[in-house]
């Protein structure tokens, strides 16, 4: 039986080995001749308690031959280092400072042959892509079906708890609850893990671990769409937010129902960035339902500024009666009253279909109820009333006669309709020049383009441009105005305006206000056609503060008639904010 020191010496040349029958006879190490520790003795470097009478200490015993070789090599290396230090020392070593060699017995224990597992017989190749890519692949698979992990050691593929948790998303592996999500006829069965769900939602925590928790293996959720529920589960399991325009409202409902506030906030931000006149009325209705005041305010801003587009959108017919009343009451609605009237009739027609009523004039008036009197019919232009509202059939004969008298008679009758016109929105003007001038040879127009680029720090709605007029007396101009973003035309209009020969600016309007997002440059262009020379601006500013909105200007490559930041045409931007 060899000790560690003896094991190392046994590997030296034969001339340097210390062996003999005397050493073997007293049970000493056959390689170095050291004797075992006496009963109760302890090795100098052995820990307390590592004692065994008449034997070498077993606390360093190796369990396998491989461990023996490794341990011997380590001791050998340490021996070499210590011998080098001794040779390099300047002093002389005395015999009293030499310590006897310390030997520890190496005991090789017999172990059973290790059984090979299936993973050793059939090793799984590690994917070439990173673990994050693998997790994303699992996410894509789990969105459509329940995915079981075939690998016996799949946990080793993912370095973080987030990635390992993500593998469980929509996965039947270890699932202890299932959800049947969706209305009857459109349900989907989705697996879940109570611990993960409880960590992500206080509602799930109360459902599974609260005082009134029910031990059900299957839970039915008929009021949530499967796609929205999956989006919520993906956030809880994977910490990822995956929203789409067609499911974001349903996802917001699920996040509100199960109190997942960060996902709900992300849904609201998504809706705010995608807000437009086409969906503003629907989002207004939903924002009131979900009690999101910030989103409600943003919806009102869009509806006020782009009222006619919002009222003519398909989404307007999908709103509830309470939202309809709030829109019809709106004092700042920037729309003609005939447009409001026609939009209300369109909503009434769809509402009759929702209530399974025949499409008749009587039923339209019935579903409108008192909301009809919120339409300010007496404020319409007389032509709009005579050719529109008066012939719609919705008004009674007495109501029609009274409104006609309201237009023409000196003594006006009392009406149930609101007779005061809406205030609408007051447009703001951003003037970018500090002065204007005219010369005998400029500013001339021959079908060339005047253009400037601008950006704002808050969302606004460009209603039109202010343009200079003739410097040689009164004149008429034909103007084609255009607004583009990255080459895409957002709005344009062709109209005429008459100038009186002054240096004032004259407004030219788009058909509908154009929504402008912050921190993005847009191109404003105009092509004027007129025989007379006009005024032009000078001492232009690169940045203008207009109320709470900051506007920045820069030159445009589309300008071919000389307009730039320092001078030229398009002195004003007219907008709602």
UniProtKB/TrEMBL annotation:
SMART domains per the UniProt record, alphabetical: BACK, BTB
GO biological process, one term: cerebral cortex development
Bias kind Low complexity: ranges: 26-35, 42-54, 85-98
SUPFAM superfamilies given in the database record: POZ domain
Domain (BTB) ranges: 175-245
Span list, region Disordered: 8-98
Compartments, as annotated in UniProt: Cytoplasm
GO CC entries: cytosol
Transmembrane residue ranges: none
Matches recorded under InterPro entries: BACK, BTB/POZ_dom, PHR, PHR_sf, SKP1/BTB/POZ_sf
PANTHER family: BTB/POZ DOMAIN-CONTAINING, BTB_POZ DOMAIN-CONTAINING PROTEIN 3
Descriptive protein name: BTB/POZ domain-containing protein 3
Organism: Marmota monax
């Amino acid at each position: 039986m060899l000790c560690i020191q003896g094991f190392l010496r046994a590997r030296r040349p034969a001339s340097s080995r210390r062996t003999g029958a005397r050493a073997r006879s007293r049970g000493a190490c056959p390689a170095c001749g050291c004797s075992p520790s006496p009963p109760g003795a302890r090795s100098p470097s052995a820990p307390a308690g590592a004692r065994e009478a008449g034997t070498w200490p077993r606390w360093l015993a190796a369990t396998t031959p491989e461990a023996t070789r490794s341990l011997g090599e380590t001791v050998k290396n340490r021996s070499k280092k210590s011998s080098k230090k001794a040779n390099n020392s300047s002093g002389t070593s005395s015999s009293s400072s030499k310590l006897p060699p310390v030997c520890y017995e190496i005991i090789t224990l017999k172990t059973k042959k290790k059984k090979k597992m299936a993973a050793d017989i059939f090793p799984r190749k590690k994917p070439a892509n990173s673990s994050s890519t693998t997790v994303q692949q699992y996410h894509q698979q789990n969105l459509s079906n329940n995915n079981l992990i075939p690998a016996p050691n799949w946990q080793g593929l993912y370095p973080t708890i987030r990635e390992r948790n993500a593998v469980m998303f929509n996965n039947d592996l270890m699932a202890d609850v299932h959800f049947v999500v969706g209305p009857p006829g459109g349900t989907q069965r989705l697996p879940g893990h109570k611990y993960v769900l409880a960590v992500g939602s206080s509602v799930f925590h109360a459902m599974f671990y609260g005082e009134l928790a029910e031990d059900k293996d299957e839970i039915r959720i008929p009021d949530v769409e499967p796609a929205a529920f999956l989006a919520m589960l993906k956030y809880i399991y994977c910490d990822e937010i995956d929203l789409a325009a067609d499911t974001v409202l349903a996802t917001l409902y699920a996040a509100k129902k199960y109190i997942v506030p960060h996902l709900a906030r992300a849904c609201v931000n998504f809706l705010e960035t995608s807000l437009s006149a086409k969906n503003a009325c629907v989002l207004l209705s939903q924002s009131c339902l979900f009690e999101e005041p910030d989103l409600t305010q943003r919806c009102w801003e869009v509806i006020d500024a782009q009222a006619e587009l919002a009222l003519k959108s398909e989404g307007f017919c999908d709103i509830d009666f309470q939202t309809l009343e709030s829109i019809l009451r709106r004092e700042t609605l920037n729309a003609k009253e005939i447009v409001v009237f026609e939009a209300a009739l369109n909503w009434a027609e769809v509402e009759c279909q929702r209530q399974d009523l025949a499409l008749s004039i009587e039923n339209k008036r019935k579903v409108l109820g008192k909301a009809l009197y919120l339409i300010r019919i007496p404020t319409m232009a007389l032509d709009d009333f005579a050719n529109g509202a008066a012939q719609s059939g919705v008004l009674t004969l007495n109501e029609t006669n009274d409104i006609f008298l309201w237009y023409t008679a000196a003594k006006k009758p009392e009406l149930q309709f609101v007779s005061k016109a809406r205030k609408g929105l007051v447009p703001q003007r951003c003037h970018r020049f500090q002065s204007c001038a005219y010369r005998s040879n400029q500013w001339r127009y021959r079908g060339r383009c005047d253009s400037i680029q601008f950006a704002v720090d808050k969302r606004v709605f460009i209603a039109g441009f202010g343009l200079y007029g003739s410097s040689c007396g009164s004149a008429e101009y034909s103007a084609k105005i255009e607004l583009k973003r990255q080459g895409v035309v957002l709005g344009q209009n062709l109209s005429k305006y008459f100038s009186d020969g002054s240096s004032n600016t004259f407004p030219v309007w788009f058909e509908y206000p154009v929504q402008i997002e912050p921190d993005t440059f847009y191109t404003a262009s105009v092509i004027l056609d007129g025989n007379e020379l006009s005024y032009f601006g000078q001492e232009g500013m690169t940045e203008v503060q207009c109320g709470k909105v900051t506007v920045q200007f820069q030159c445009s490559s589309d300008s071919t008639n000389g307009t730039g930041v320092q001078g030229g045409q398009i002195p004003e931007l007219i907008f709602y904010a």
